[in-house]
């Protein structure tokens, strides 16, 4: 398809070759046995986590406080450098996969925000993409991102990237100014600042963008790419494959073998001026040519895998994109990962990992489907779907359900296996960016019951520190779900907390609740049987879990007891004479007569002594 390499393409390929990550030693625990069905995934909205580079805080002219004086919907400064700085903290939680908000270049400007339109809403969360082949400058540079992925891999942490195929970002006046497209009301200059006239009853929802049909919109994505009012096609707020969700321009990607389209005008002109700090080198070959919308999108997103060694995707709004289109993305990403592994032997420990590329998806309201009756596994390429069971409501305050031992039994029946895996896995959460923050009175109990749940689990940043919903500075409950991270006072000690994760850490946070998250999480990290194993009930509140994967050399057993007890049965998990360690106290016990004499107040987490 490509007969010659353009100068811009050559420059990007050269940058890719020159910026390979240096060889560096792995951390303790990086080679611990891993299976996705036992994964402990830490979901972080990068912008709200840690500011590692203040020089990029105002990229594209984005402010910290908007024209109304609010910061509810603005970028707060968190970036990839900051995330890299906190990897030891994340690892200390026993995390073996991190789901990051989409780092692709977002809409530059704001759209109307909040139920009352009081503030300017920017795309800090990563769901309003502008250029899928370039990194958003607020997040950092290609060099920053390469270092982050390598540092995560050195700690044994897989990287899952949030991706959006369903829709583009809204049109913003800043984008209209920067890329010379679109129509405004009354000929308003899109390059000028606009604030609502409150005397006329205006809000930020009344921004002077005219989305009626007009040729001036043709320089944006174009009618062949998106469903949009400016192209004479209704784009409202309906659910469906070929409808606009929340008025977001819907990509015409239902059929991956649809007619070929050309690169949109605004992207063609944008790409004529290379930006080596932010352009993704592996995406260069997909900045020209023609193919269906679905295949362009899939290639653009898979290029991040080929360039950096991304281990998996979390797919937004999965039910609004066709299964064949998701399957194409899975195919391209899997091929890309193999290319990256072949190129990076000796440079990144993950190049030697053998797990296939992983995809999990958001199907709103989904709970469980281990037999894949929905076809999301077989027909769409998903390895799991996000489980909404414990927090299914829309935006609300503390509406979560805490798992109990009955739920352990139910989830073990669905997701526990002595060997092998389910057809369609799960990723269960108790807090999310779209529902509520789970903040119960007894967060130690919450930590134990959730962390030990069978199946894969997802922590939302700040679950472990009881981060509060600050209501976006008091004006929006939804924005408060993404409040700034509240690190513990002793976070500088995080490297020590992460030192012993493969055996038994000697140091934990002085915050007693956080310490429970760390101890239970590290126990799960060391033992695939916790999430993936077959469960046998030994006594009230007492369970043996076992998991084996001969191909990976895994033969793992644990005994978990929840509740008070003066002794704990070990059943077929451990033979007499086996020396065990208890993860919450660090004490050692020897199995005698099929049990251990351990006095338990809250819980006992028993594993073979390391």
What does this molecule look like?
This protein has 610 residues and is of the alpha/beta class. The protein has 2 domains: 7-164 and 270-526, TIM Barrel (Alpha-Beta Barrel); 533-608, Immunoglobulin-like, CATH 2.60.40. 23% of the residues lie in helices and 16% in strands. The chain has 15 helices and 22 strands. It has helices at residues 7-18, 80-85, 87-91, 142-154, 173-179, 265-271, 293-308, 323-343, 405-415, 443-451, 471-474, 477-480, 494-497, 512-526, 529-532; strands at residues 40-44, 97-100, 104-106, 111-113, 119-121, 129-135, 158-163, 226-227, 250-251, 312-315, 358-361, 384-387, 425-429, 456-460, 534-539, 542-549, 554-562, 568-569, 579-582, 588-590, 595-596, 603-608. Strands 1-2-7-10-11-12-13-14 form an 8-stranded parallel beta barrel. Strands 15-16-17-22-19-20 form a 6-stranded antiparallel sheet. It has a two-stranded antiparallel sheet with strand order 3-6. A hairpin with a 5-residue loop joins strand 4 and strand 5. Helix 7 (293-308) runs parallel beside helix 8 (323-343) and helix 10 runs parallel beside helix 14. The protein is globular and about 85 Å long. Mean pLDDT is 94; it is low at 1-25.
């Amino acid at each position: 398809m490509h007969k010659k390499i353009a100068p811009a393409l050559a420059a990007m390929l050269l940058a890719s070759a020159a910026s390979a990550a240096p060889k560096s030693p792995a951390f303790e625990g990086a080679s611990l046995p891993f299976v996705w069905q036992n994964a402990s995934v830490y979901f972080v909205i990068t912008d709200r986590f840690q500011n590692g580079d203040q020089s990029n805080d105002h990229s594209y002219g984005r402010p910290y406080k908007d024209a109304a004086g609010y910061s509810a919907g603005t970028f707060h400064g968190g970036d990839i450098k900051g995330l890299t700085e906190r990897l030891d903290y994340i690892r200390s939680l026993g995390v073996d996969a991190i789901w990051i908000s989409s780092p692709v270049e977002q809409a530059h400007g704001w759209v109307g925000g909040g139920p009352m339109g009081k503030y300017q809403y920017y795309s800090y969360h990563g769901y309003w993409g502008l250029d899928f082949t370039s990194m958003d400058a607020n997040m950092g540079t290609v060099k920053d991102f390469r270092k982050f992925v390598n540092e995560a891999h050195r700690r044994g942490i897989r990287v899952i990237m949030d991706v959006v195929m369903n829709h583009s970002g809204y049109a913003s006046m800043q984008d209209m100014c920067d890329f010379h497209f679109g129509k405004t009301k009354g000929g308003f200059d899109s390059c000028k600042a606009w604030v609502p006239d409150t005397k006329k009853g205006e809000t930020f929802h009344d921004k002077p963008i005219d989305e009626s049909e007009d040729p001036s919109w043709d320089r944006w994505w174009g009618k062949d790419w998106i469903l949009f009012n400016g192209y004479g096609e209704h784009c409202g707020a309906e659910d469906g494959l070929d409808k606009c969700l929340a008025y977001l321009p819907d990509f015409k990607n239902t059929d991956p073998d649809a007619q070929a389209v050309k690169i949109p005008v605004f992207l063609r002109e944008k790409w004529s001026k290379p930006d080596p700090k932010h352009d993704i080198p592996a995406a260069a070959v997909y900045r020209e040519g023609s193919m269906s919308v679905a295949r362009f999108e899939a290639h653009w997103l898979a290029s991040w895998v080929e360039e950096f060694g991304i281990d998996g995707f979390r797919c937004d709004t999965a039910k609004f994109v066709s299964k064949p289109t998701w399957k194409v993305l899975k195919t391209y990403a899997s091929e890309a990962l193999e290319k990256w592994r072949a190129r990076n032997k000796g440079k990144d420990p993950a190049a030697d990992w053998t797990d296939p590329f992983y995809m999990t998806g958001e199907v709103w309201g989904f709970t469980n489907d281990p037999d894949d009756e929905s076809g999301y596994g077989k027909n769409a390429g998903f390895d799991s779907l996000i489980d909404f069971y414990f927090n299914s409501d829309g935006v609300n305050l503390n509406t979560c359900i805490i798992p109990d031992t009955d739920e352990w039994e139910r989830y073990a029946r669905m997701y526990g296996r002595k060997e092998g895996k389910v057809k369609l896995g799960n990723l269960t959460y108790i807090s999310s960016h779209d529902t509520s923050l789970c903040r119960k009175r007894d967060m130690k109990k919450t930590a134990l019951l959730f962390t030990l749940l069978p199946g894969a689990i997802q922590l939302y940043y700040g679950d472990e520190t009881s981060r509060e919903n600050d209501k976006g500075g008091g004006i929006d409950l939804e924005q408060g779900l993404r409040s700034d991270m509240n690190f513990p006072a002793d976070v500088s000690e995080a490297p020590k907390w992460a030192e012993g994760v493969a055996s038994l850490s000697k140091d934990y946070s002085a915050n007693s609740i956080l310490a429970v998250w760390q101890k239970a999480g590290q126990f799960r990290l060391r033992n695939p049987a916790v999430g993936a194993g077959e469960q046998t009930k030994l006594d009230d509140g007492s369970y043996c879990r076992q998991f084996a994967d001969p191909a990976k050399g895994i033969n793992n057993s644990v005994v978990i007891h929840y509740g008070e007890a003066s002794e704990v049965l070990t059943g077929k998990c451990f033979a007499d004479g086996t020396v065990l360690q208890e993860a919450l106290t660090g004490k050692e016990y020897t199995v005698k007569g099929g049990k251990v004499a351990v006095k338990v107040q809250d819980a006992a987490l028993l594993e073979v002594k390391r």
